[in-house]
Amino acid sequence: MTDRPVLYAIKHESMYETIDMPRVFRRPSVVAKRQLFNIPFWGKAALAYGMIPVDREGGASALRDMLARSKSLLAQGRPIIIFPEGTRVMHGECPALQSGFAGLYKMMNVPVVPVAVNSGKLMPRNHWLRRPGVITYKVGEEIPAGLPRAEVEARVHAAMNILND
Question: What is the pTM assigned to this prediction?
């Protein structure tokens, strides 16, 4: 991982990634759905920590709010983490990236580092069953700022899904 301001685009297969981010990164600012900030006590703590709420139905104004908060946190030297598929997906699924990722990448004008994870094999979405094993992260090559949307999305999508079997 790098100490420079970057955007990390991480595969999201289970709750594990969200809990593990403070261990993997130094004071990460994670983009999360606004509904999570309505949880009593947790929501205020998440905002105070520097998490970034995003209203999925908010359109351009939601993107502007997410961008302003992200730029402020980047200026403090904190990495920004986004789950560009928008929600948790089953291991092996490769949905298209949400438009908020491309907007954030373009407007922040920082490199993006794709990260693959295979946590869904051990902690499947919407299942209480947890399997023993090892969760693997694979950090992709840094992708420079300023690439066309189609190119950055294709590179991030491929790198995030490299651990799919």
Answer: 0.89
**Residue 91 CB neighbours (<10 A):** 19
118-138 b/e (C-beta count within 10 Å ≥ 16 → b): bbbbbbbbeeeeeeeeebebe
Q: How far apart are CA 140 and CA 30, in angstroms?
A: 19
First to last CA, the chain: 25
Q: What is the dihedral of CA 46, 3, 91, 101, to 10 degrees?
A: 70
CA 15/CA 91 separation, integer angstroms: 13
- In angstroms, the CA 119 to CA 15 distance is 9
Q: How many CB atoms lie within 10 A of CB 3?
A: 8
d(CA 61, CA 33): 15
* C-alpha span between 78 and 28 (Å, rounded): 6
Q: For residue 134, which amino acid is it?
A: V
Cα–Cα distance between 80 and 107 in angstroms, integer? 13
pLDDT per position as a tens digit, 65-82: 888 999 999 999 999 999
